[in-house]
Structures are given as structure tokens and as C-alpha cells.
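quick one before i forget lol
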Amino acid sequence: MTFIPLGTVGQVIGLVTWQIAYAVIIVRARLLTIGMEYEEAAMDLGASPTRSIRRVLLPLLTPAMFASAAIVFADSIDDFVTVRYLSAGANTEPLSVKIYNAARASPRRR
């Protein structure tokens, strides 16, 4: 009995656990370079803390979020070892594993 079932659920949980560090590091680095001045200026002009985050902080974090999404996407396409071991069968086999299995197979003669 396993706590997390093999298949799509296990693959998603495995990849999220493995890839979340990239997004955290990139967005956190951008967040530390921004500083508190922008949020404080927005609140001095009458914005609530929630509105200052939505109107000031999120637009400044958008490039870091897109960069981390691109890096995570590229690395998750490459990281088929995790997905291969967490797949339950051929019905949950992603494209990268299918390409790997096809490349491993012997070539057919015509």
C-alpha cells in the first residue's frame, strides 16, 4: 500500500516537489531586490495592503514569474526519470518517456 498512488497523481506531486525550488529561488530573489519602498508609497497614497500588493508588487514580480515558469517547463520536459518511475503503466506514459522507449527499441527494416 502506498500513500501516493502511481500514475498521473504521483507524477504531478513528484514534479511539483522537485521543481518548486526553482520558482521559489527566482521569485524570492526578485522580491528581495524590489524593496519595501513601492508598497509603502502605495499605502501612503491611500491603497490598502491587499491593493498595493495587487497593483504594485505583482506587476514588478511578473517577469520573475514568467522566467521561473519557463525554466520549470524546460526542466520538467527534460526530467523524465522521475515521471518514468512514477508511471503506473502505458496509459500514464508522457511523451518524453515514449520518445525514450522508441529510441531504445531496435530500428525496423523496410
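fyi The longest helix spans residues 49-78.
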